[in-house]
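User: Hello! My lab partner asked me to get a predicted holo structure for this protein. The small molecule is flavin-adenine dinucleotide, SMILES included with the sequence. Please write out the structure tokens.
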Amino acid sequence: MLFEIFSVHHGCLSSAWHQPPPMSQTSLDDSSFKEHGFKVTVRSGGHDFEGLSYISNVPFVLIDLANLRKINVDIEDNTAWVQAGATLGELYYRIAEKSPVHGFPAGACPTVAVGGHISGGGFGAMVRKYGVAADYVLDARLVNANGEVLNRETMGRDLFWAIRGGGVASFGVLLAWKIKLVYVPPVVTISLVTRTLEQGATELVHKWQSVASRKVPRELAINLHIGVVDKNHSAAKGGLLGRTIQATFQFFFLGPAEKLVQVMQNEFPELGVKKQDCIEDSWVKSHINFLGFPVGTPVDILLNRTSFPKATFKAKSDFVNKPIPKIGLEGIWNMLLKEERPELIIATWGGKVKHISEHKIAFPHRGRNMYLIGYVSNWDEKNEFTTSERHISWIRELYDYMTPYVSKSPRTAFLNYRDLDLGKITINNTMASPDFHSQLLTRLHVVFFSPDDKATSKALSPRVRSVNPYKSNERDLLDERHQTKKLL
Ligand SMILES: Cc1cc2nc3c(=O)[nH]c(=O)nc-3n(C[C@H](O)[C@H](O)[C@H](O)COP(=O)(O)OP(=O)(O)OC[C@H]3O[C@@H](n4cnc5c(N)ncnc54)[C@H](O)[C@@H]3O)c2cc1C
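Assistant: Hello! Below are the structure tokens for the protein in complex with flavin-adenine dinucleotide.
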């Protein structure tokens, strides 16, 4: 396989890089790559779950933006320009350097880069308070296939819509985002509560579903990590016997511990959250503690681009919009207990993210969603191909098991949790295709072939034009109202 890496360094763009750089300075025109039959892939942080930024089964050129990572925070203006290769850790560090009461509502992992992350939506512990990272994009610099550097105005409304949630890789090379910063209070509180099945985890997880997304204030995220441990509560290492499920409730509260304890006593006393189990700190330090680094870890850990070990895993995702009954949860536990190192990484939804229109940007996961589940199976890299196949089969089985309990028509998935099982798209005459990607693709055609433009509209096959991605949502709502009526 032919393989080359192009690295784009700091110096490549002008020092006044918050202005659109002149075209000649970017030299990212890929016509010569095309001429030689190379596919072009772009990598910012390299965290793609399926490795799409650095793996290809055809000869390819990799444009590596890891060194394109300047961050320019303008506290007076509540904005920042951040280049594609900057990590979330670097961004949070630079914001906190300038102000203790500014933050940005993006993901937890400090080594993920903004290039891929924000273009796929990007959520973190402030998703209930503020929505997703892509909701806070004010402008962007993007090189298109002709080597032109576009900004919000020159790329046009549809393209600017698409790159905020729909992924940017299909449209060009993203150089930088201009983002709006948000307010964070001077004191943020985090806490953890763990419970095994023997300690009532099923009851608690069942109740958590309606409390976390609907009853607590937007300032509070109660995320869940569900894994398998030995019955003596150490992380499971050996065989499959003698193990149990452990649910870890992770609290991130934009406010003092006292208030968090009060909220929990009112809404979820069974969890027994106590003030002495809470840690109060600044937003940026709470972020580090929330990640599991010991209290007192220096903030510059956020600048370390290799602070997380490499892992071999397969992941999938689902959104849930009605509580899973206890019997369904017990079935999930049975599935998890069959696997060696499974994890469910569950993020609570609701609050602000729910109230932003699903059409505003290309991130449709709003409205009724209560939480997002990331299913993960981990294994060691040294294991053989047959081992990978076994774990991948297990996660597909779990995904099938989940069908009755998760979003439907279409069953939705989170683009940032890349899953190539969903990548085979056929556009039919109808909206029959069940997954989010098909819905997104139909809308993305509009980006290139605006229906307002008669000539390009004509060039579209009737097949594609007949698809209306919003119809199915309307139908869902009608179905739901119909069902509710029947129940009444
Ligand atoms: C440990 C870990 C934790 C995570 N936590 C979260 C989380 O809390 N919240 C969340 O929302 N997501 C999370 N993710 C998912 C993460 O947001 C996505 O994997 C994201 O796409 C990573 O962006 P990247 O730039 O690091 O990855 P890359 O692998 O570099 O890129 C991802 C995709 O975007 C394309 N791309 C990247 N940069 C550019 C660019 N500049 N121009 C054009 N195309 C580009 C790539 O070609 C690829 O298709 C996590 C992932 C990992 C591995």
